[in-house]
């Protein structure tokens, strides 16, 4: 049985869809079009990417807590009711 980390996979797929732009002042902005409102800024592209990942994480957690409908990304639907698998006993 392989272990899947659904939130990590979801974030990785979402980050793969990120769009970055270099601004006139040589800073960067990033956004994930599928995730409305997920926008970040940074002095460097790396800083912007890190900030975007953090913003995405907060956006997902808040959306789950508030019961908002989240987009299906990479065939991962976080809107489904969770299922529980039996724990292995040793």
Question: Keywords, please?
Answer:
single chain; 90 residues; alpha+beta; Double Stranded RNA Binding Domain; 3-stranded antiparallel sheet; 2 helices
Estimate what percentage of residues fall within beta strands: 5-15%
What order do the SSEs take from the amino end to the carboxyl end, as H and E? HEEEH
Shape: elongated
**Structural class based on helices, strands and sheet pairing:** alpha+beta
Helix content percent band: 25-40%
Known CATH architecture of the domain at 6-66: 2-Layer Sandwich
Provide the CATH top-level class of the domain at 6-66. Answer: Alpha Beta
The poorly predicted ranges are: none
Strand tally: 3
Number of helices: 2
For the biggest sheet, the summary is: 3 strands, antiparallel
Average pLDDT: 93
State the separation between the terminal residues, measured CA to CA: 15 Å
CATH fold call of the domain at 6-66: Double Stranded RNA Binding Domain
Major beta sheet, strand line-up: 1-2-3
The radius of gyration is 16 Å
């Amino acid at each position: 049985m392989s272990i899947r980390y659904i939130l990590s996979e979801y974030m990785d797929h979402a980050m793969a869809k990120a769009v970055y732009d270099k601004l006139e002042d040589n800073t960067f902005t990033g956004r994930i079009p599928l995730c409305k409102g997920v926008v970040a800024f940074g002095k460097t592209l790396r800083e912007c990417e890190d900030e975007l990942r953090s913003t995405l994480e907060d956006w997902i957690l808040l959306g789950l807590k508030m019961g908002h409908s989240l987009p299906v990304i990479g065939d991962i639907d976080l809107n489904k009711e969770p299922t529980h698998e039996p724990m292995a006993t040793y």
